[in-house]
Design a protein that fits this description.
The chain is an alpha+beta fold. It is built from 7 helices and 11 strands. The protein has helices at about 1-35, 35-60, 85-100, 130-135, 225-255, 290-295, 300-310; strands at about 70-80, 105-115, 120-130, 140-150, 155-170, 185-190, 205-210, 215-220, 265-270, 275-280, 285. The strands form 2 sheets. An 8-stranded mixed sheet has the order 2-3-1-5-4-9-10-11. It is globular, with a radius of gyration of 23 Å.
Length: about 325
């Protein structure tokens, strides 16, 4: 029923566009017959709006995966490099939160581990909204920052890395088999704001998936049950992402394309010194407006990557 409703919504959207196109054509013909400048201007305005709607709908054809329509779980992990890398992870967190805000998506930080001096070591954010996962799956990979470190008294240039993981939020009716015996659950007091010194009960949850070694924690909810539910959503997403990466690696191998696993597999470089440039290493799309990018304006990179992957299910 969920898939049927989604397909119905899709066809109705295209039907509305077709109807509006007919109305705009009729308005243009009327304006030309009457030689009315105001009507001609209105028709031109409608044409621009229709072209924008068509472009957006056409772009959505690039998102054909089974979970692209739904929400996403985004995790950011600081790489090696201590405070500098942790600050970079925090900058990326802000970038994605601002991107979500631009798209009117709801966000919730379900787990966050602060750095010792600044920044964050890791953070997990749930992003709810239509097509959130379809867009954000383009952001999966290693992000590289080059800048003069504000934490270096000698003002030397540093290179920092952070890993971004993106998983879908599964609907309750989607089955992904996780055996009960394969999960170890530990509980502890939350270390978030109002955590350790405020709570007398152990509400934070740590889940360990024994076969894969994946560890997921959640401590931002008020109850142990809520934290366990959030942790399970993240775990399911991570297990799905592992299977997806295996599939992509196999497809790349069959195509003869070499895929390097690990930290060397960078997707984008953000250079702030000695010049300013953000470049996506997969599509060669680049911009010198680094301020806008770090403020959440990353759609040019997402759209370029997705257009190269039209029809690639994820």
């Amino acid at each position: 029923m969920r898939d049927l409703a989604a397909l119905r919504e899709e066809t109705e959207t295209w039907d509305r566009l077709n109807t509006d196109l007919g109305d705009a054509r009729a308005l243009l013909e009327l304006a030309e017959e009457a030689d009315d400048d105001e009507l001609l201007a209105e028709a031109a305005e409608q044409a621009q709006a229709l072209a924008k709607r068509y472009s957006e709908l056409e772009f959505r054809l690039a998102m054909s995966g089974p979970y692209d329509r739904g929400g996403a779980i985004l995790s950011i992990h600081a790489g090696a490099g201590g405070t500098e890398a942790q600050d970079w992870a925090h900058i990326l967190q802000r970038m994605y939160l601002r991107w979500a805000e631009r798209h009117d998506y709801d966000t919730e930080i379900t787990d966050q581990l602060e750095g010792e001096e600044a920044g964050i070591k890791t953070v997990t954010i749930e992003i709810e909204g239509p097509w959130a996962y379809g867009y954000l799956r383009a952001e999966r990979g290693v992000h590289r920052l080059v800048r003069i470190s504000p934490f270096d008294s000698s003002a030397r240039r540093h290179t920092s890395f952070a890993l971004v993981e993106v998983m879908p939020i599964f609907a309750d009716d989607i089955e992904l088999e996780i055996k009960h015996d394969d999960i170890k659950m530990d509980v502890f007091r939350s270390s978030s704001a109002g955590g350790q010194h405020m709570q007398k009960n152990s509400t934070a949850v740590r889940l360990t998936h024994i076969p894969s070694g994946i560890v997921v924690t959640c401590q931002n909810e008020r109850s142990q049950m809520q934290n366990r539910e959030s942790a399970m959503r993240v775990l399911r997403g991570k297990l799905y992402d592992i299977e997806l990466q295996k599939k992509e690696s196999e497809q790349a191998r069959l195509r003869g394309k070499h895929v390097e696993a690990g930290w060397g597999n960078q997707i984008r470089s953000y250079v702030l010194q000695p010049y300013q440039m953000v470049k996506d290493l997969r599509t060669d799309v680049e911009t010198s407006n680094t301020t806008a990018v770090l403020d959440g304006d990353i759609d040019l990179f997402i759209e370029a990557w997705l257009k190269e992957h039209v029809g690639a299910a994820a």
